[in-house]
Amino acid sequence: xxxxxxxxxxxxxxxxxxxxxxxxxxxxxxxxxxxxxxxxxxxxxxxxxxxxxxxxxxxxxxxxxxxxxxxxxxxxxxxxxxxxxxxxxxxxxxxxxxxxxxxxxxxxxxxxxxxxxxxxxxxxxxxxxxxxxxxxxxxxxxxxxxxxxxxxxxxxxxxxxxxxxxxxxxxxxxxxxxxxxxxxxxxxxxxxxxxxxxxxxxxxxxxxxxxxxxxxxxxxxxxxxxxxxxxxxxxxxxxxxxxxxxxxxxxxxxxxxxxxxxxxxxxxxxxxxxxxxxxxxxxxxxxx
Length: 288
Fold this sequence. Notes:
This protein has 288 residues and is an alpha+beta fold. It has two domains: 11-168, Four Helix Bundle (Hemerythrin (Met), subunit A) (Up-down Bundle), CATH 1.20.120.450; 178-281, Nonspecific Lipid-transfer Protein, Chain A (2-Layer Sandwich). Helix content is 46%, strand content 14%. The chain has eight helices and seven strands. It has helices at residues 11-30, 48-62, 82-93, 99-123, 141-163, 172-192, 250-257, 274-281, and strands spanning 131-134, 137-140, 199-206, 210-219, 225-229, 242-248, 269-271. The strands form two sheets. The chain has a five-stranded mixed sheet with strand order 5-4-3-6-7. A two-stranded antiparallel ribbon has the order 1-2. It is globular and about 60 Å long. The two termini are 23 Å apart. The relative contact order is 0.14.
């Protein structure tokens, strides 16, 4: 996929994209009035301050901080899994703290975490392939930073939407997030949506981040379905496949892949097979 602006693909660029998005959350929080910290966001059960608390907690743990214990008596309808309980603990820990205090904590955590990563990369003790601990499990550093971009940028957009301050829809972290989704698209189309062989599905990003990604579905020798990326420059781009094009904005796709909106809440244009498009759109959520 050719994105404009392009997504950084080196560890230094991805690290900078992550830090830029965390700093954006700090800046947004720093401009909040007291009552704005309590505004509800698209993430179920969480206010603006809760979003900032969550990012603070995760980055603090990644920097070496202790995981907070479960909060006794916490009854949250939006907590539906063990991972959700662990995530909620960091939010509950900060629930009685002033919003600005949480913003100040995040600023300190960002400085600490960024210095750790930067020093490790500069000294050679960390490489892009070094396996590190991330919230969803161990993974190579460069892959882990991509997932942090996806998560942090999503929470930044949640906060922006609640505050009525749109922005950073074409930021480096936005581009990393869309490129991260593109890596999942073959699975989404061929496995989750179970689109039949002979079909090609194209996602057109209409802006502010502009790009096109696609997958053609083929049948393997053992009769299974496999998604093959399009627009790779290779000759087998599937010109004879039945093509369905799904067009939507960066903000719209971002909300769908993070599970922040239902398809009916997003402006989507379809060209081609409506039933194929519907099945793919219903499976765009790739959030863990």
